[in-house]
């Protein structure tokens, strides 16, 4: 592989629908891609050795694996130095595990990821050797990467749960076992397909873990009207998914005269009773992640990234010196805020900067409604069941997932607009920004767009579907009047998809394009087994799936 080349096909916007080879559409440089490949090689080595040892993973192994996997998610970390520091740390940990295995007389498999010595002079060569293209067989490559991408999403959700004190060693042990299978150059197709499907099972488990962590810490999300205008005070804009971070920020900004606004996937913070109680949590500013260049500019104040969805700023961007990163995120030149020994973060530098900034420039006014996670939906269950039985609600469409830059994503706005008035949209993730500000009305007082929250809150729709299955006495989840029309972009969407497949959901509509990391043969298995299909026209799809 030439030094200026790369290969990455993990996101929906990958170049030409096949793979980025010069520079990522996300803005990732070829060198960054190489260091991420190197880091993932170390991750596979550690996972394989840990699985061979057979003991419960230590906190050090758990944190390294989840942090490293999260670091390589699309739009999370563009900082080569940060990624290489994680490689260094991983090699130290790997050598400790090798010593432990030797002391226990454990025979380790002779996979490249296990035997590589970790010499710094060999970093570039190892990064090239261990790229996605290390497998010549496209079907083997596809199945291994499908699992790997699912593990990345799983690690992201696990990290958020762990920040709130909820952990599950069985999930980490599975990650290690899956990494060992991926590392095996002789793994059979059936074995790899089995691990893909098992990844979905643990995807359900990790989303349940995060749901428990969020609701125990902050209460059950409740029906909430969120302001999309601005106040007159200087503000801090917080993006991403980590609720522990926004809580730290809200506590530290209380009484300072600084307002806090959410952006993108942090919008659902407004739905939690223990977060919405802060009066200086003023509202949500802007839209989905991909509009951040213009929205960060007009916001005027500092921006905090708690997770992925970074769009590299242009060199002339006025906001480039007022962005901070936390957790697994990073960007060259941006200040990174580490957690202290107590797990909390000190946002004093962000607050001091905010005090010197102008208030946000208002870009819209009004409000949006959300907070329909499973507990709130169950509170409305009688009303919803009656509406279904009476025919007032004909069908539910789950339109969860991601938003993105491609014009083809306008399909989702047009689909929402074209739905018959007796159809309710169930949404979660930033996909909702395509239609959550449209006036789509209600059915007997039930809003026609029910927003459960972040992408991980797709779990709520699985819980709701299983409850409706019980209420209506259906023998199969697919007998319910529910159609899944999912938009995907990055790897958290992959684990959500695998989780839905594990729960037995069939005929999922997946768009705006089908994944490049699925080879034709693997895609055929998914189509034949689960009925996965891609987008048609809005008119065709509504006629086919809604009637």
UniProtKB/TrEMBL annotation:
Q: Which keywords annotate this record?
A: 4Fe-4S, Cytoplasm, Iron, Iron-sulfur, Metal-binding, Oxidoreductase
Q: Which CDD domains match?
A: HCP
Question: Which SUPFAM superfamilies is this protein grouped with?
Answer: Prismane protein-like
Would the keyword Cytoplasm be found if you checked this record's keyword annotation?
Answer: yes
Query: What reactions does this protein catalyze?
Result: A + NH4(+) + H2O = hydroxylamine + AH2 + H(+)
State how the cofactor is bound: Binds 1 hybrid [4Fe-2O-2S] cluster. Binds 1 [4Fe-4S] cluster.
Q: What InterPro entries does UniProt report for this protein, alphabetically?
A: HCP/CODH, Hydroxylam_reduct, Prismane-like_a/b-sand, Prismane-like_sf, Prismane_a-bundle
First-listed, main subcellular location of the protein, grouped into a coarse class: cytoplasm
State which Enzyme Commission number(s) the record gives: 1.7.99.1
What GO molecular functions are on record for this protein? hydroxylamine reductase activity
Q: Where in the cell is it found?
A: Cytoplasm
For activity, the cofactor(s) needed are: hybrid [4Fe-2O-2S] cluster; [4Fe-4S] cluster
Pfam families attached here? Prismane
Q: Which HAMAP family does the protein's record reference?
A: Hydroxylam_reduct
Role description: Catalyzes the reduction of hydroxylamine to form NH(3) and H(2)O.
Q: Name it.
A: Hydroxylamine reductase
The record lists the lineage as: Bacteria, Pseudomonadati, Bacteroidota, Bacteroidia, Bacteroidales
